[in-house]
Design goal:
199 residues, Hypothetical protein af1432, 0% strand, 64% helix, mainly alpha
């Protein structure tokens, strides 16, 4: 995917280029342009499958959701702040407000029942969990590389807690299509990684 061609605001291609540059930072291993492209592809898939959501704020939130990523706390808040700073001259105030809300949701991926926009974005962001086993293994290894400064035992403990929390949820996904098409593979992948961690 040519990401700049996918940027939804042609009136501000410079901002699109700045976002692409952020995702290409050399310290990123998973939260990079490949991840951004995959999230955008899953948003488009959900749209094509009839998931009800407002396309513009969800697509913009996909672009911004990991625009700041450095393994320090509250990256989502800083990503949302960037969106709040640069979008007001480009889109309507209600779109800016919704993009900020959606980016903040990706910190925990727990949209409220009936939050169609939040469900679509969170599902697209977590769709990597349902990737084929080879891509999932690449994802898991890349996440470990992003936290290279964390000792192995601490990383295993923290990662296992995240995976157990995922498996404890009644559903990993919120849209009808994602639950039908992605949930079984995602649960199998997460369970396999958790077992490998000894968790």
């Amino acid at each position: 995917m040519d990401l700049l061609l996918a940027w939804p605001l042609p009136c501000s291609r410079e901002l699109g280029a700045q976002l692409v540059a952020a995702y290409t930072h050399p310290d990123r291993r998973y939260h990079d342009t490949r991840h951004l492209a995959e999230v955008l592809e899953r948003v488009h898939e959900l749209c094509a499958e009839g998931a009800p959501f407002d396309r513009m704020p969800v697509v913009l939130a996909a672009w911004f959701h990991d625009s700041v990523y450095d393994t320090r706390p509250h990256a989502e808040r800083r990503s949302a702040a960037w969106a709040a700073e640069v979008l007001p001259t480009l889109v309507e105030p209600e779109v800016v407000e919704e993009v900020v809300r959606l980016v903040l949701l990706t910190e925990r991926h727990r949209p409220a029942r009936g939050d169609d926009n939040g469900g679509a974005l969170c599902d697209a962001d977590l769709a990597i969990l349902a990737a084929d086993p080879e891509r999932y293994a690449e994802y898991a290894a890349a996440v470990r590389e992003e936290y290279a400064e964390v000792p192995d035992d601490r990383f295993r403990t923290g990662r296992a807690a995240v995976l157990r929390d995922l498996l404890a949820k009644p559903h990993l996904f919120h849209t009808t299509h994602a639950r039908a098409a992605w949930e079984p593979a995602a649960r199998a992948n997460v369970a396999r990684e958790l077992a490998a961690l000894g968790g």
